């Protein structure tokens, strides 16, 4: 078992949970998050963003967000079928599995401009970094239009074969806002440029997972982001346990191809509230091996 400190957003909720006795946990919202990867001289890199407002995904996280009803509307599909995805994700709910996959690709497109979709099973859409595409991302983010409508307009099908399942995490019972999160991974397409969403982008960049993990005892990352809730904070105070563990696994990997091709069971993790030897609340989760797989072929 491993233990992680509570971040500031969780401390009050944890104290109330302990003071008033365990109650029925709030129902978690389904969410998807994508670990976008590329190789670099400094090792395997991933894209991370700042998330304001006490997001259950963490103050600093991989691109992601809530599964939406409109995700059911996406019908053009390339790669493993929803039935196959349900099996890969370890669920009997085929519709939910499909929504998680659609939400993962949609949220990554909204937040980074990377779109895993193409006109056929062997190609990806190109040249999507202009203002027209930014407006489309903004429209989807504000729910003025749907992701399915955009795909239909451009004659695109989701390239679900470019997405790999990673892990399944649920927020602790005491949290006020809870997510049931499916983490996925994908390599950065070589023919697409990454950009933050104009209306929401505060900070985001490619980071070397090995460097972030090596520097987690300091506050360099939080100071760089330069927000009131990041300055002076260590990595464990900026990210949720699931993100820190994924960063450790990326840092230990020899390259993108090996990491994406690693055969991993999709275990479900949920941090448990415990009290440490000093009487402080912390989160406890099962320990997992750090090593998961060898050079990244960008598509």
Overall description:
With 299 residues, the chain is of the alpha+beta class. It contains ten helices and 14 strands. Strands 2, 3, 4, 5, 9, 10, 11 and 12 form an eight-stranded mixed β-sheet that branches. Strands 1-14-13 form a three-stranded antiparallel β-sheet, covered by helices on one side. A hairpin with an 8-residue loop joins strand 9 and strand 10. Helix 2 crosses helix 3 and helix 3 crosses helix 4. The longest helix is centred in the middle third of the chain and has 19 residues. It is globular, with a radius of gyration of 19 Å.
Summary?
The chain is α+β, with helices and mostly antiparallel strands.
Fraction of residues in β-strands: 15-25%
Helical run tally: 10
Q: What is the rounded distance between the termini? A: 37 Å
Q: What value does the Rg take, in angstroms?
A: 19 Å
Mean pLDDT over the full residue set:
92
Biggest β-sheet description: 8 strands, mixed
Give the strand tally.
14
- Helix % is 25-40%
Q: What is the H/E string? A: EHEEEEEHHEHHEEEEHHHHHEEE
Q: Which parts are unreliable, with pLDDT below 50 for 5 consecutive residues or more?
A: 294-299
Question: Looking at the structure, what is the overall shape?
Answer: globular
Structural class: alpha+beta
